[in-house]
Amino acid sequence: MKADRDKAGYVREMFARIAPRYDLMNRLMTGGQDRAWRREVIARAGLQPGQRLLDLGAGTGDLAFEALRRHPGVQVVAADFTPAMLQVGRKRPEPHPGWAAADALRLPFPDESFDALVSGFLLRNVADLDQALAEQYRVLRPGGRWVSLDTTRPAPGLFSPLIRFHMDRVIPALGALVTGQRDAYTYLPASSQNFLPAEQLLECLRRAGFRQAGFRRRMFGTVAVHWAVR
Fold this sequence. Notes:
Distance between the termini: 28 Å
Number of helices: 9
Helix content: 40-55%
CATH topology: Rossmann fold
Number of domains: 1
CATH superfamily: Vaccinia Virus protein VP39
Strand order of the largest sheet: 3-2-1-4-5-7-6
Number of strands: 7
Radius of gyration: 17 Å
CATH architecture: 3-Layer(aba) Sandwich
Strand content: 15-25%
CATH class: Alpha Beta
Structural class: alpha/beta
């Protein structure tokens, strides 16, 4: 339990420090591809007018804003446990979602509150993955759609040396230059390497009760979009 609290505290403090340049770093680290991945996440959520969407671990709200651009009739809640990230999102000059401070392990929403739930780069940062998935299952309505974008451990291959160089050298150096927070951008690649392979996350979804689960890899296998139905 103490280790879980320590990880949660470290992650919150780290994201607070990088919040002002978080979106810029995402664009730089992925060569702008993260925008296409987020569009894919929202497309897979299959939103209909009047439905409710939870963007969990929303950060500055990229997925929430994408949903509102594509589906103006949807009710969107953007939830994150780092207030500094939410504050950056609130300054964006676009139609806004509802904002909520929320811990992914103890969501402050009633059972079956949402028709869809999406997340971007959340799961590898939670202290208890099974508990986080159980909470997400709880707040989805029966038949609700769940979609996650996250890093994943790539299979060994021809590009493995280049991928390791990018993760271990380029990203920390870029993070230091752009944000002044090299340690944060050392943690982020390390958390990606230590996270579950996409196939194991798929099994976690099934154990949590989700059905029709699947995934697709992106960016040389280093990123995966997972989807499922409650």
